[in-house]
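FW: tagging you since you asked about this chain on Friday. Here's the raw sequence from the shared folder, copied in full. Didn't touch anything.
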Amino acid sequence: MKKSILVFSAFALVAATTLTRCNSPSKKVEEAQNEVNNANKDLAKANEEYLADVERYRKETADKIDANDRSIAAFNSRIKEQKREAAANYKLKIAELEQKNSDMKKHMDEYKAEGKEKWEKFKAEFNHDMEELGKAFNDFTVKNVK
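HL: got it, structure written out here
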């Protein structure tokens, strides 16, 4: 009987080892596939967030550019109240602001989503340029109020 138990134990050990070896590679493949699937889901989510950020930023800048356009229209209506020399000078400055505003809109419209790293760089540069344009509008308004 001891021999039967010993033979059975040895057989069970060999069978378990064989089964473990057979399952191990397939289990590793399955786990690797799960990791790949999870990584793909994370990548897809990050890409969705990136594209949503691009669209949100496009909307924000479009709103700012539209506000600039309204300011330009208001500046143009005020020019009529100025003397001829001052009006000519204001028209030139307004034309410059209008061109910069148009250039910013075009630059934003032409941006192609090429990855988060390039987007962050583009956005930083664009923010800087928009701030400069905003300062130019404020400076023009302040000088015209005096």
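FW: The longest helix spans residues 2-79.
HL: agreed, and Helices lie at 2-79, 84-110, 116-145.
FW: great, closing this out.
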